[in-house]
Amino acid sequence: MISSLFDYFSPRARFFIGFMACAGLLAVGAYLQFVEELEPCPLCISQRLAILATGLIFLAAGLHNRARKIYAVLAAAAALIGASVSARHVWLQHLPPEEVPECSPGLEYVFQNFPLADTIKLMLSGTGECAKIDWTLLGLSIPAWTLFAFLLLATWAGLLWGDSTPHISE
């Protein structure tokens, strides 16, 4: 079924599907932030950046329509980096309360008053607010769903890498 569905779309369209999936994930993040008023923590922001990077790679591949295997590897790498950030986030959420790191000052303060290297370290390692679970669906938190989405995106990129459809200008 997946193979026949995959074969239904042109190689270029398959990359655009990856881009649209990333755009949809970013739209869900915006909805949760601006409508449901759930403030993103540093790890959430890092995951959004990884989704954005993955989506831009898929978009560039669809527009460029050349070097598909290279774009597929880049998209898979970006998705797997995002998956590693999501996995850390899920791990932080499952720590016993006494092992959760301390909360940090707000990101705006950190960006204005800390060196860039410290800010990046904070955004990738997480803080106490990253351990808080504000929302669940079917028993899974947002970072758990994001981890699942990253793994699907990496799998999609892997399928695109293995695609042997000849290049045809569209």
TrEMBL record:
PANTHER family: DISULFIDE BOND FORMATION PROTEIN B
Alphabetized InterPro entries for the sequence: DiS_bond_form_DsbB/BdbC, Disulphide_bond_form_DsbB, DsbB, DsbB-like_sf
Gene Ontology molecular function: electron transfer activity; protein-disulfide reductase activity
Gene symbol of the encoding locus: dsbB
Protein name: Disulfide bond formation protein B
Keywords, comma-separated and alphabetical: Cell inner membrane, Cell membrane, Chaperone, Disulfide bond, Electron transport, Membrane, Oxidoreductase, Redox-active center, Transmembrane, Transmembrane helix, Transport
A Gene Ontology cellular-component term: plasma membrane
GO annotation, biological process: protein folding
Role noted for this protein: Required for disulfide bond formation in some periplasmic proteins. Acts by oxidizing the DsbA protein.
Compartment(s) of residence: Cell inner membrane; Cell membrane
Cysteines paired by S-S bonds: C41-C44
Family membership: Belongs to the DsbB family.
Gene3D superfamilies for the chain: DsbB-like
Membrane topology annotation: Multi-pass membrane protein
Transmembrane regions listed in the UniProt entry: 12-33, 45-63, 70-91, 142-162
UniProt topological domain (Cytoplasmic) ranges: 1-14, 164-170
Side of membrane Periplasmic, spans: 32-49
